[in-house]
Design goal:
Blueprint: E1 5-11, H1 28-35, E2 38-44, H2 50-59, H3 88-96, E3 99-105, E4 119-123, E5 135-138, H4 159-182, E6 187-192, H5 202-207, H6 220-241, E7 248-254, H7 262-266, E8 275-276, E9 283-284, H8 299-302, E10 303-309, E11 317-319, E12 323-324, H9 327-335, H10 352-356, E13 368-372, E14 376-381, E15 384-390, E16 408-415, H11 431-445
Parallel strand pairs: 1-6, 1-7, 2-11, 2-12, 3-4, 3-6
Antiparallel strand pairs: 2-10, 4-5, 7-10, 8-9, 13-14, 14-15, 15-16
Helix pairs in contact: 4-6
């Protein structure tokens, strides 16, 4: 039996409620994909910011295992992947004979070709950081005519940079269309969307894949989500045109949780207010029941969409079980019958039995969820969630020696079952639970292979 193709779509700054069926935004392509997919409503990212989140999604490793311990923010710079670490592209190419292509935001340092891709049209750090340019790597890779003929001039707010940025969604959609219609089978196409990261100047809102200004009814930030929907439509149409929809597995997720309007972030508000429609007649709460947003370790900064469509293999349904987005790496490779070594995807759990089941589980086999940033880390065990910071100067994420208890100082302990807005710090009243979660953290950070068990009990 031939292997199916793989399409991975990673959106930017996208929370699950923004594209849920309850969203007021006009998203027909995403609605159709939702109805055909396994949809996790409580999926958790391994980071609250771009670079570490993208490293984790590319490798199945927590960001703390990257070369820097928190992804790679610079360009040019060495790869975020340490020597010997393999990306999902390398695993599919080496173990499954896949042709691999990349399009979009990179933010991993190094070179896509050295990370397992046969070709790439990529933006080194996204459209909000220099260099403002679409870069080409690989034999025969060409810039589609939909791309801007000129790159930005290096100035963030110049007309040239704005024109390049405005053309980028069309450029990446054209790249996706070309790859999906012509790549040798089986293929991996990793589409790292530019939507919906800011800036959101009017020019972008008017030219993203034909999206008119205020197409969402909620202003430029959400116009970008409508643009993402059109990009998803381009992917779906290309698969249909080649008659490979049934033989393609498609994964949709985001690098981290939803962003919040900058004025609220700068004012240090911890709950992002509802968005107000431009005619001021409607409101839209993209954080219902969650505190925090992008850049924070609260649930609003870590909850993301995770949708998987594989016709005939993964039943379409909604799962409310909490899951980790990085589990898609080992789970998918297991279902594709691609060998994965114990040194690959170290923090990814094989949940293939759950994914292929026709029933929706209330509790996944995994109940531990970890996310880390430069100096902090949050660990959730079931409904208990503790936040720690690196305490000792001798403890660094990218160290090669084992971590010890003194490396981590607990800052908070939250019981999400009774405190979903994460306001009541129970660290003083539940010291045993905090110690248990610290032990889980040590077990995770000191492991050099995927967890043999994905469940722990810190309630007693």
């Amino acid at each position: 039996m031939s292997r199916p193709n793989v399409v991975i779509i990673v959106a930017d700054d996208l929370g699950p409620l923004t594209i849920a069926p309850t969203s007021p935004l006009p998203l027909p392509n995403l609605r159709a994909l939702h109805d055909e997919s396994l949809v996790f409503e409580d999926a958790h990212a391994p980071a609250a910011l771009c670079a570490p989140g993208r490293y984790a999604l590319m490798t199945g490793n927590l960001p703390l295992r990257s070369r820097t311990g928190g992804g790679e923010w610079g360009w040019p710079a060495p790869s975020a992947l340490r020597p010997g670490q393999r990306s999902i592209a390398q695993l599919l190419r080496d173990g499954g004979g896949y042709h691999t292509q990349f399009g979009g935001k990179w933010h991993l340092g190094g070179d896509p070709i050295d990370t397992g891709f046969d070709g790439a049209l990529f933006v080194a750090k996204g459209h909000n950081f220099p260099p403002y340019a679409t870069l080409l790597r690989g034999v025969g890779i060409r810039r589609p005519p939909e791309c801007s003929t000129n790159d930005g001039d290096g100035s963030k707010d110049s007309p040239a940079t704005s024109a390049w940025r405005a053309a980028l969604p069309n450029c990446l959609a054209a790249r996706a269309r070309h790859v999906l219609r012509s790549a040798p089978l089986p293929f991996l196409y990793y589409h790292s969307a530019s939507q919906k990261h800011g800036p959101y100047e009017a020019g972008v809102g008017m030219t993203q894949l034909g999206t008119v200004a205020n197409a969402s009814g909620f202003g430029p930030r959400f116009d970008a989500v409508v643009s993402l929907d059109l990009a998803v439509g381009t992917v779906l149409d290309a698969l249909n045109a080649r008659s490979i929809t049934e033989s393609t597995v498609l994964v949709l997720t985001s690098d981290h949780g939803q962003d919040c309007e900058w004025q609220h972030v700068s004012n240090r508000k911890v709950v992002c207010p509802s968005a107000l429609s431009t005619d001021r007649t409607r409101s839209f709460d993209a954080f219902a029941g969650m505190r925090g947003y992008k850049g924070t370790f609260f649930e609003g900064g870590l909850r993301v969409p995770l949708w998987v469509r594989w016709p005939g293999r993964i039943p379409a349904r909604v799962s409310r079980a909490t899951t980790a987005t990085i589990d898609y790496v080992r789970t998918l490779l297991s279902m594709l019958r691609v060998e994965v070594l114990s040194t690959d995807a170290v923090d990814s759990v094989d949940l293939s039995q759950e994914w292929s089941s026709h029933s929706s589980l209330a509790q996944s086999a995994r109940n531990v969820f970890v996310a880390n940033g430069p100096a902090g880390i949050t660990v959730r065990v079931d409904q208990l969630k503790a936040h720690f910071r690196l305490f000792s100067p001798g403890c660094q994420w990218n160290q090669t020696t084992p971590f010890v208890r003194g490396c981590f100082r607990a800052l908070s302990l939250i019981d999400l079952s009774v405190d979903p807005l994460e306001r009541d710090n129970k660290l003083a009243t539940l010291p045993g639970a905090a110690q248990c979660i610290r032990n889980v953290l040590l077990s995770t950070t000191n492991s050099a292979s995927p967890p043999s068990r994905a469940d722990y009990d810190c309630t007693h």
